[in-house]
């Protein structure tokens, strides 16, 4: 199955050379349906497992990065208090509540909760009326036809948006690099992908997916720390996440790092209560799980093996193109040394092809940035799916214009 990108391989991305988005232009064939679009910027929304990223087309970075963890307070019967807490309200609240994770391993499992979270973000955080804005929303690279229809239903019927566009996350990550052909290696919070995109077409039949990513590394780091004498619990995952981002790295030579004197392995980390702990070999052992997920109990392929499996399914011409444009995306690839390790091991697998790894400093938000660029291009504006089209043709028009 080959799915064409929502942007012409020639012309569109050249407008965004240097990753500088162009001003938004909202022209329409039907004035009644897009009156608001002429005066407002389109929204760009990336619904990830760990964070929802929201902002306006043409901006360089999302304005709001909010955890989709959603809590329903346990109010007494008959109470008039708020029924949901999300974002800053959730962080600042001590009210007893039930946590809900509406997105797991990149897949929506609770559509009502996703809609509730987005409603809170639009109304409470962004302070906008969603019916005044077109929206470009990312969807998983292996999203099913049914799921695409549910996204459209939520946006058109739940939020009454005047126009929408759905785009695969791998396409958007690629656009953030200004490419139209690439091997996108993406590892975020709850899921990792390896997706080949060739001349604007995502090769979905050979796209690989594994259900582990940054959250699994955080849990594995907690396990390693506890085996070293600490007593961290799941309630301290945010602390472990912060420690991972500040102190951990990917080893370029594991045996060499393990042979270092203990004092050279160690760093001190300040806990929220002001106390310090010393972190040693856990700093680099945790990252090994991305290459060997068996370390945290998963039988799935490591990211390098997943990449190799994907490339082996490509013909020779496509392999050469992919190896010359390997793009790292997602927060889990941000760990110090990851890009160099990936380059080193991929070069060992393909010694005659000189793989080229690209690792943008902004790759943590690559999907959102690509969406911001795409939605702001003049050449893209005819690809909005308007509400009148959806009302007349249903989800069929989504597939014609977006995929």
TrEMBL record:
What are the alphabetically sorted keywords of the record?
Cytoplasm, Cytoskeleton
Q: Which InterPro entries match?
A: Actin, ATPase_NBD
**Entry GO terms, CC:** cytoskeleton
> Does the keyword Cytoplasm belong to this entry?
yes
The record, for SMART domains, names: ACTIN
Q: What is its main location?
A: cytoplasm
Would the keyword Cytoplasm turn up in this protein's UniProt record?
yes
Q: Where in the cell is it found?
A: Cytoplasm, Cytoskeleton
> Which top-rank group of organisms is this from?
Eukaryota
Give TM regions: none
The family line of this record is:
Belongs to the actin family.
Family annotation (PANTHER family): ACTIN
- This chain belongs to which protein, by name? Uncharacterized protein
Q: What is the lineage of its organism?
A: Eukaryota, Metazoa, Chordata, Craniata, Vertebrata
The protein's gene is named LOC101870866
């Amino acid at each position: 199955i080959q799915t064409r990108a929502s942007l012409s391989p020639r012309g569109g991305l050249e407008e965004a050379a240097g990753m500088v988005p162009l001003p938004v232009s909202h022209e329409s064939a039907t004035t009644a349906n897009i009156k608001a679009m002429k005066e407002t910027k389109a929204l760009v929304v990336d619904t990830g497992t760990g964070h929802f990223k929201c902002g306006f087309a043409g901006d360089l970075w999302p304005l709001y990065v909010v955890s989709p963890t959603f809590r329903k307070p346990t109010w007494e019967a008959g109470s008039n208090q708020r029924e949901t807490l999300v974002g800053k309200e959730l962080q600042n609240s001590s009210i007893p509540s039930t946590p809900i994770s509406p997105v797991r391993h990149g897949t929506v499992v609770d559509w009502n909760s996703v809609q509730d979270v987005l409603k809170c973000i639009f109304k409470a955080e962004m302070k906008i009326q969603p019916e005044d804005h077109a929206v470009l929303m990312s969807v998983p690279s292996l999203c099913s036809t049914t799921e695409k229809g549910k996204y459209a239903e939520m946006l058109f019927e739940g939020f009454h948006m005047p126009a929408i566009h759905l785009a695969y996350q791998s396409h958007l990550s690629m656009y953030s690099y200004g490419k139209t052909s690439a091997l996108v290696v993406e590892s975020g919070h709850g899921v990792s992908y390896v997706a080949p995109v060739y001349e604007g077409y995502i090769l979905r039949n050979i796209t690989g997916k594994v259900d582990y990513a940054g959250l699994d590394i955080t849990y594995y780091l907690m396990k390693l720390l506890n085996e070293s004498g600490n007593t961290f619990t799941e309630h301290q995952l945010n602390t472990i996440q912060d420690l991972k981002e500040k102190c951990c790295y990917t080893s370029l030579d594991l045996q060499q790092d393990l042979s270092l004197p203990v004092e050279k392995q160690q760093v001190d980390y300040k806990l929220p209560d002001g106390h310090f702990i010393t972190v040693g070999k856990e700093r680099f052992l945790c990252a090994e799980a991305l290459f060997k997920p068996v370390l945290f109990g998963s039988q799935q392929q490591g990211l390098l093996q997943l990449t190799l499996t994907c490339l082996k399914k490509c013909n020779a011409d496509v392999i050469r193109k992919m190896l010359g444009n390997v793009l790292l995306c997602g927060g889990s690839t941000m760990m110090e040394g990851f890009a160099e390790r990936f380059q080193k091991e991929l070069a060992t697998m393909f010694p005659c092809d000189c793989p080229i790894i690209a690792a943008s400093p902004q790759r943590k938000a690559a999907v959102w940035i690509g969406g911001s660029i795409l939605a702001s291009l003049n050449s893209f504006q005819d690809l909005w799916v308007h509400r009148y089209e959806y009302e007349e043709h249903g989800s069929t028009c989504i597939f014609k214009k977006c995929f």
